[in-house]
Design a protein that fits this description.
seven-stranded parallel beta sheet, globular, about 45% helix
């Protein structure tokens, strides 16, 4: 059932998607999938914005999305896609059908921020990254560019005054001897300098620093995050509210992740994995009221891009009776993430057209640890997202017409 009969008239124009980590598995899958959808070779299965109740909201058409990005890897996009074909993720025929589109995107991928090879200040580095985004927007005649961070998970930065205060941050970034921001936050800073809406799809710090929130407000830029909710946490956010709604008490909820590929190698680092564990557990603890939620993430290289997740749920019921539920699932995580990434780009374009700025809490639907929201129940997040999209579409119409919101 559609939530509104409102027919939007805002002119979204062509919209850019700028991937940070543009040659990684998720970005490659999203780029190839977008080309297949836009060419009519594949249906947008898994894209929430293509299904009710969002399919009647005026959003940039898939064919009007143009992809570019930053990456520190120089592996061509087509070669990365071939690796995904060899892993069994993507049919070879589909890759060959859209290879020209991948080659065109590859020509729009620029060298990313690499702290190990930085020369000059972080301010200069961010300005150069922002210039790449602006150049992409202008060369392709885009109405706007949405930046989506898909880079590898990194350790969270230690607390520092510069991360809390925008003026202190600006001054510190000018010092060529200092590494004030982690790479994810340098890219977020660059997005703000370019006036580009931003999505933090990883658990890295990225935009989630008070100084960057202040800059987003100053620049009038909307953003959403954090850490894409693709598989295990999505299922948890469905099951946990159902259990508590029955008046049952969760005693413990233990889980394990097995994964290989680049994510597995990255999360084998005990410092990098901490941010992932925090984001995966916070919502579950809020939903269940239990702090007994041990979670393990293990690198199993032979799994490649396949992720396996297991949960053991122990519940107390009537008269102290016990209930045990176990779940196991396995999937190509990039295939779960890619359609959500395309959804985020379309919805953040709408937020930008409506003149929104700062965190968009209604997009918590897509994230494990949503910025600006304490809502973790998937059913409630779904409802809130639908209401927000229709309301914001009306705001975008009003903004384009130069009148107050109807």
């Amino acid at each position: 059932m559609h939530l509104s009969a409102h027919q939007s008239t805002w002119n979204h124009g062509r919209t850019g998607i700028w991937f940070v980590g543009a040659r990684g598995s998720v970005a490659t899958t999203a780029t190839l999938g977008l080309a297949a959808i836009a060419s009519g070779l594949s249906a947008p299965t898994g894209c929430v914005t293509a299904q009710a109740p969002l399919d009647d909201v005026a959003l940039p058409a898939f064919a009007d999305l143009v992809v570019g990005g930053h990456d520190i890897s120089d592996t061509p996009l087509g070669k990365k896609a071939e690796q995904l074909v060899e892993a069994g993720m993507i049919p070879y025929r589909l890759l060959e059908a859209v290879r020209p589109q991948l080659d065109a995107v590859d020509a729009d991928i620029r060298p990313g921020y690499d702290a190990a090879h930085r020369t000059g200040s972080q301010a200069a580095a961010a300005e150069a990254l922002a210039a790449d985004i602006v150049d992409f927007r202008e060369r392709h005649g885009l109405a706007r560019v949405v930046v989506v961070d898909l880079a590898s998970t990194e350790p969270l930065p230690a607390p520092a005054p510069e991360l809390e205060d925008l003026d202190l941050l600006r001054a510190a970034l000018e010092d060529p001897e200092r590494e004030v921001l982690p790479a994810s936050s340098v890219n977020a800073y660059a997005a703000l300098l370019a006036g580009a809406p931003y999505a933090g799809f990883t658990p890295s710090a990225s935009m989630n620093l008070p100084a960057l929130h202040a800059l987003a407000a100053e620049r009038g830029v909307p953003f959403a995050g954090q850490d894409g909710k693709t598989g295990q946490t999505w299922l948890r956010s469905v099951l946990a509210p159902a259990i508590t709604a029955r008046g049952l008490r969760v005693l413990s909820w233990a889980g394990s992740n097995l994964l290989g590929g680049g994510d597995g190698a990255t999360l084998a680092d005990p410092h990098a994995v901490q941010s992932k564990l925090v984001s995966k557990n916070r919502g579950l603890q809020d939903l269940t009221g239990s702090t007994v939620t041990p979670l393990h993430i293990d690198n199993v290289p032979d799994l490649g891009d396949i992720k396996v997740a297991w949960d053991h749920i122990h519940v107390e019921g009537f008269l102290g009776s016990r209930l045990t539920l176990q779940t196991t699932w396995s999937a190509y995580d990039s295939m779960l993430a890619a359609p959500l990434v395309l959804d985020l780009a379309r919805l953040l374009a709408l937020a930008d057209a409506a003149g929104l700025s700062g965190p968009v809490p209604e997009m918590g639907f897509f994230f494990k640890d949503p910025w600006g929201s304490d809502v973790h129940s998937f059913a409630e997040q779904s409802r809130v997202l639908g209401v927000w999209a229709h309301r914001t579409s009306a705001q975008a119409d009003a903004a384009q017409a130069g009148v107050d919101e109807p």
